[in-house]
């Protein structure tokens, strides 16, 4: 029996401030390593069908690599995840201009977004779970966002082998808020391998088609009779090899938001690796999940001494619809003083023999 515990270690210095790594371990030996820098999850270790533990997420073992490369491995995105067209939107009759950090567009909250901040952290250990609480005060006007935003998250690792993310926020002015986590999963646990043989299932009958700048075109397109129909599951390789124009547009893969059906008793998405037997179920209160198959990774940097190839991991970024503030019918991502933001996402790790 492994008893639930927490280990805290020094990870490095960021602008002369200490960066710490917490290792959370549940009774089954499942481990999560987390930084106060970016609220980054550096690794998640789970068992395969043979009882062997391995890291099933992409991450680095030192701070220097996180500072040198920006694939957002395991990082918190925000205040708004995804892209905002030209960094512009109108709110209560006022036109707002955010910083532009991807061409003319705003991405993941701007250049110095949540993933580049040092969060205040507290850890509480219970009988059957560990709860890490992260807090950060986003200052009015930072990256163009109106309002002082008090951002809060908790990561919970419990004895059900679940990782729960609870997002909370309040603001003293009306603003927009749509955070996410950019964790990349590779259930094989093999550094340098790809997720092409993983099977992906998403309970969604519509997705958001995008343009050449990866911005939504404003349409909610049916997945019926196209490669984006993942309701019965597909091998990832089948998707990447598709000649569908939307797949080709992002470098032969996915970088698309799927609108979730949220049917009771069914997960919103499932990822399965037949070789290791590892299975990941995702459930969320968010309207959508953005799935990205790491199409832009190219082996130009290493992780644990191995080059990180194209398709090295796959994300499940739970969030409101991308660029929702600029599209009718895309949902409400406005955060108002009188109505705090809350949302939960659960990742559940199991094994099939």
UniProtKB/TrEMBL annotation:
* Gene3D superfamilies, per database record: 2.70.98.10
Pfam families the UniProt entry points to: Aldose_epim
Cross-referenced InterPro entries: Aldose_1-epimerase, Aldose_1/G6P_1-epimerase, Gal_mutarotase_sf_dom, Galactose_mutarotase-like, GH-type_carb-bd
The reply to whether Isomerase figures as a keyword in the UniProt entry is yes
GO BP term (any one)? galactose catabolic process via UDP-galactose, Leloir pathway
Instruction: Tell me its EC number(s), please.
Output: 5.1.3.3
Designated name of the protein: Aldose 1-epimerase
- Species name for this entry? Listeria farberi
């Amino acid at each position: 029996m492994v008893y639930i515990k927490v280990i805290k270690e020094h990870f490095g210095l960021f602008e002369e401030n200490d960066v710490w790594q917490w290792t959370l371990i549940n009774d089954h030996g499942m481990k999560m390593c987390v930084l106060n820098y970016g609220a980054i999850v550096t690794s998640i270790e789970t068992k395969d069908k043979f009882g062997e533990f391995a890291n099933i997420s992409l991450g680095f073992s030192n701070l220097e690599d996180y500072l040198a490369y920006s694939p957002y491995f395991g990082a918190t995105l925000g205040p708004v995840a995804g892209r905002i067209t030209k960094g512009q939107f109108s709110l209560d009759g006022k036109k707002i201009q955010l910083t532009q950090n991807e061409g003319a567009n705003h991405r993941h909250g701007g250049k110095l977004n949540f993933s580049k901040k040092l969060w205040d952290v507290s850890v509480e250990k219970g009988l059957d779970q560990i709860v890490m609480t992260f807090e950060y005060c986003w200052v009015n006007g930072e990256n163009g966002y109106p309002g002082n935003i008090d951002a809060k998250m908790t990561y919970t690792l419990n004895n059900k082998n679940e990782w729960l993310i609870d997002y909370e926020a309040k603001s003293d002015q009306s603003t927009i808020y749509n955070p996410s986590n950019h964790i990349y999963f590779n259930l094989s646990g093999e550094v340098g391998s790809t997720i092409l043989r993983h099977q992906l299932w998403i309970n969604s009958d519509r997705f958001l088609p995008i343009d050449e700048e990866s911005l939504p075109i404003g349409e909610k397109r049916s997945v019926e009779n196209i490669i984006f129909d993942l309701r019965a599951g597909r091998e990832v390789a089948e998707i990447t090899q598709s000649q569908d124009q939307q797949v080709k547009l992002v470098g032969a893969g996915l970088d698309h938001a799927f609108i979730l059906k949220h049917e009771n008793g069914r997960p919103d998405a499932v990822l399965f690796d037949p070789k290791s037997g590892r299975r990941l179920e995702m459930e969320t209160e968010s309207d959508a999940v953005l799935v990205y198959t790491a199409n832009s990774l190219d082996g130009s940097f290493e992780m644990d001494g191995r080059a990180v190839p194209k398709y090295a991991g796959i994300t499940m970024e739970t969030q409101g619809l991308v660029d929702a503030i600029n599209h009718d019918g895309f949902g409400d991502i406005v955060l108002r003083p009188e109505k705090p933001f809350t949302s939960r996402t659960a990742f559940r790790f199991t094994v099939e023999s």
